[in-house]
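User: Hey, my collaborator sent me this sequence without any context and asked if I could get a structure. I don't really work with proteins. Can you help?
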Amino acid sequence: MTREPSLSHWARERERGSSSLLRAMVWVALSLSQVFAEALLVPITAWFLATSPASRAASRDYLGRALGRPVRMTDIARHFFEFARVILDRVFFLAGRAGDFHTELEGLEHLNAHIEAGRGCILLGAHLGSFDAMRTVARGSPVQVRPAMYRVNAGALTAIMERLDPQLAAQIIDIGKPEAMLQVRESLDRGDFVAFLADRATDPRRLIAMPFFGAPALFPTGPFQIAAMLRSPVVMFLGIRTGRRRYLLRFEPLPSAGPLADPIRPAGQAEALRQTMSGYVSRLEAACRAYPFQWFNFYHFWRQVAPNGSTGGKEPRRALLTAMLGATVFVPRGPVQAADDPSRLLNTLMRMLAEKTARQTAFHEEKTIPNLTKPLVSSGVLVYRYPDHLEKRTTSPIREDLVVEGRRASMTGGGADTHVVDIDAHAELRVVIDTLLGVLSGNLTMLRLDFDVTVEGDAANWRIDLLPRGKDAPRFLRNASITGHQSAIREIRLLLPHGYWDVLTLSGE
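Assistant: No problem. I've predicted the 3D structure and written it out in structure-token form, which is a compact way to encode the shape of the chain:
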């Protein structure tokens, strides 16, 4: 009985073949003439075709779906040849010779609208055509286009690319590193674009099965969850090769991910996630049908899904909706057990906090201010509704109300008119509000945007410590400590700059 190759096997063979082919293309293209390089594509492609049986099988599987007919060996050869031609073009793009190409643009007005508004944007592409064709737009763009990728998985292929373009490494956001989310957010805050390829991932905890050519296939959830969490507009882009040195760059906005800002709660989120991703997947399928020989995922895209539509392998047989960068893990519902290690305990606590979608509790607040002999004391009621509604109703010593709804906060006190502010426009308010919402909603991803998060204790009695590491957090919040009992939060202690303390004690849940 023949054993089915694993996904890592496909990845190794694809990497081996791709890097070998690219090395050959680099030498031929830059040492000899471009015309001679194009002439050598046939023997180089033949070598790649002869030495990559797994990729041939994957190509046959995909082309059978895209073409809707039996696949001939000439079809597979053409698929490989198109791949070789795109790689050759890639060499010239990376070598700074994008001016040799003619690029047709569709939907550029969608990018211009974000540039004129000074608003960053997430671009979602695919392994269809060439991502590097984007350089023809980025070269004259007033904003930076930063690719986000797992460099640790890229291997020799990325090393070759970076030698061709030394500036490429500085532009890449390595989403395998802890600071990646902060870099994405800072780029978007500057009005830059961050680009993901959203049709390939290898971690089964970050995949969800979507209908693709009439059968379930796995797509990564991370880029969509990041866009939702950062409330970024999303534009799909494709760089399609239409002829010799000719490309079509197409941009099309996707529906906002909206309610997906909390990726830690799988319950009730799966359907919303599927609806958001379906726009991307359906557009990708249409592009693959129109340009079937330009989609270059040379592994069995559909065989990683079990017949029931779940992920295969040793992971739990469900599509786990987790944040990109490994922010949290879904813990099945059931009685709470003591955690074996801090990481597991933190995930358990986040799940318990997230499951409590509504809270109303009395609070007692003490603010310690240097040079005052006594703290300022107040009390009232704290109201929370998932995911981002917060009310702090102070009843003593005077009536004050703070109401947070989404990214807007309204403040009323002492009979004065209500003052409404944009939270994101006031960094000091954003850090404190996002800290409270991150804790109340159990959103570890939100907390990790600004803090290193550690935990002590057990599920019955615990303490979470937040140490600022983001751009804004240290200037407005020195550290935070939250204590509680299972899903009940007992105290939130904030150390502010200049020796100010704010201690919020909660009771009555």
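In plain terms: The chain is about 35% helix and 25% strand. You can pass these tokens on to your collaborator as they are.
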